[in-house]
Write a structure and sequence with these properties.
With 448 residues, this protein is an alpha+beta fold. The chain has helices at residues 14-33, 47-50, 55-60, 86-95, 139-156, 168-178, 185-193, 195-209, 214-224, 235-244, 249-265, 312-317, 330-340, 345-348, 364-376, 390-399, 410-415, 436-447; strands spanning 37-38, 44-46, 64-66, 77-81, 104-113, 125-134, 162-167, 274-276, 290-295, 304-308, 323-329, 354-356, 381-383, 404-407, 417-422, 428-432. The protein has an eight-stranded mixed beta sheet. A five-stranded mixed beta sheet has the order 13-12-14-15-16. α6 (168-178) packs across α9 (214-224). The radius of gyration is 28 Å and the shape is elongated. The protein binds one RNA strand of 75 nucleotides through residues 2, 4, 7, 57-58, 61, 84, 112, 114, 116-117, 119-123, 126-129, 190, 194, 197, 282-284, 294, 300-305, 327-333, 357, 359, 389-399, 405, 407, 409-411, 419, 421, 423, 426, 428.
RNA sequence: GUGGGUAUAGCUCAGUGGUAGAGCGCCGGACUGUGGCUCCGGAAGUCGCGGGUUCGAACCCCGUUACCCACCCCA
């Protein structure tokens, strides 16, 4: 029987859980500080809720659940696993419209499933940490998203991330001004999105392969030939976009929105992080306005992404409600933090503060009594179950990374003491039994 | 879905046709009141799976499965 979990999924052992909970704790704290409130939604949705929301590629990657019973052999699906947290939110907003505040800000940390081929930092089951702000078209909320993501990453110890920002309407305007017909926009965006990977010549090849005319291809390349990704100054790309789309009213206003976002962000933790990236496209089809992606140098994919989707809720409700959101990819953050050794020491410590050793079989009752006393002092306490020789018990405690062991031998019992040994320093102290818990707790507080 | 690579002990890997190996880990002992250091000993492998070539295959050939890397797409 094979014991490996299905490809693209993982079991989380205690060390993994500690790392995950550390990151989730920071994410939740920051999100709540920005006024986002938690919701959860089911692991699966009616399939029609999901289909047609993510684009052609997305449709293929949805995990479908077969109908049960007599319909099973037809292979027909009526349910599907959640593909992201944004579409379920849109459904929730449409369903509970009159119970939700005018400006609804929610966060949601749950797994999603994609029928992708697994790769480094890419899983078929993974957690997203979403924040979304419903009900406002203001660029102020887009900036709050960028700000909270920056604060999360900053607190986790990231100092080299950038927030790439672009605008769907600005992209549309750019392509229209270059002479790319509307029906080729999706293809053209896919090609342009690869600019930093395959270069100008590659994009040119890709565009013509996708049937974009020479003239339009040339016009696109003219614009993008000077575009440098991740350039710190935002004025240059904004100026160039503005100039290129000046005859296009919607495009010009989109560029103005981008400029507002850059300016507002200066007063937030996102300050200095934003890079206007005219080639950023993003795959999901529901985006309508500003789009964003979070990148670090040592990861091919992104740590997170998001954007404005002003008419997704309308697909459920019948009339549009503006919305914008962003997600952080939990496992991508953990992959980079693990590789870089960014977890603080207390996360690496095990789940036990002190182990009570077992002196001999006769003292078992005393060992559990001591464990109880130490637990009453708010310590996490394990009791060694067998009367093995002390060396073996110590070795076990050290291998579990337990910082302290407590020993009550015949001598200690006679004096009403506990011998407390710090396994990290090797230092051993005899303390009155009533003081033992406080002694250990204060040592833990002093040096993690 | 496309291309490339890998598969040998719990882990990391060596082994280019002739007796299955190392380091780490694990267990025991030196050490019946003390882990890490040292020394001694020990357990542990259908060499991914199936077929073929050969007197003989971990090694060569064919197939297959799993995993890894890159691409596509994305968190």
């Amino acid at each position: 029987m094979k014991t490996r979990p299905p490809s693209g999924t993982r079991d989380f052992l205690p060390d993994d859980i500690r790392r995950r909970e550390h990151v989730i704790g920071v994410v939740r704290t920051v999100y709540e500080r920005y006024g986002f409130e938690p919701i959860e939604t089911p692991a699966f949705e009616n399939i029609e809720t999901l289909l047609g929301k993510y684009g052609e590629e997305g449709n293929k990657l949805i995990f479908k659940i077969l109908k049960r019973g007599e319909h099973e052999r037809t292979g027909e699906a009526d349910l599907a696993l959640r593909y992201d947290l944004t579409v379920p939110l849109a459904r929730v907003v449409a369903q509970y419209q009159n119970q939700l505040p005018k400006f609804f800000k929610r966060y949601q940390i749950q797994p999603v499933w994609r029928a992708d081929r697994p790769a480094r930092g890419r899983f078929r089951e993974f957690f997203q940490c979403d924040i979304d702000a419903i009900g406002s078209t203001s660029t102020l909320v887009d900036v709050e998203l960028l700000s909270s993501a920056s604060e999360v990453l900053g607190r986790l110890g990231f100092h080299d991330f950038v927030l790439r920002v672009n605008h769907r309407r600005a992209l549309t305007a750019l392509l229209e001004c270059a002479g790319v017909p509307m029906e080729q926009h999706t293809d053209a965006l896919i090609a342009l999105d690869k600019l930093d990977k395959i270069g100008l010549a590659g994009v040119e090849q890709e565009l013509s392969a996708r049937g974009v005319e020479i003239e339009a291809t040339k016009a696109c390349l003219d614009f993008f030939s000077d575009a440098r990704r991740d350039e710190p100054s935002q004025d240059v790309p904004l100026q160039r976009m503005r100039e290129f789309v000046k005859s296009h009213a919607a495009g010009a206003s989109a560029v103005d929105e981008l400029r507002e976002i850059v300016q507002l962000a200066e007063a937030t933790p996102a300050q200095g992080r934003i890079r206007i990236d005219p080639s950023l496209a993003r795959g999901l089809s529901y985006y309508t306005g500003a789009i964003m992606e979070i990148a670090v140098p040592d990861l091919a994919g992104s740590l997170g992404g998001g954007g404005r989707y002003d008419n997704l809720i309308g697909m459920f409700l019948g009339h549009d409600v503006p919305a914008t959101g962003l997600t952080l990819g939990l496992e991508r953050i953990i992959v980079v933090m693990t590789e870089r050794g960014m977890f603080p020491p207390e996360v690496g410590r095990g789940g036990v503060d002190v182990m009570v050793t077992l002196w001999n079989v006769e003292s078992r009752a005393d060992a559990v009594a001591l464990a109880r006393e130490l637990r009453q002092g708010e310590l996490r306490v394990d009791v060694y179950p067998d009367a093995d020789r002390l060396g073996k018990q110590f070795k076990y405690a050290a291998s579990r990374r337990m910082p302290f062991v407590a020993i009550v031998g015949d001598d200690e019992r006679a004096r009403g003491e506990v011998a407390v040994k710090d396994l990290r320093s090797g230092e051993q102290t005899a303390v009155p039994r009533a003081e033992a818990a406080r002694f250990i707790a204060s040592r833990l507080a002093n040096n993690g």
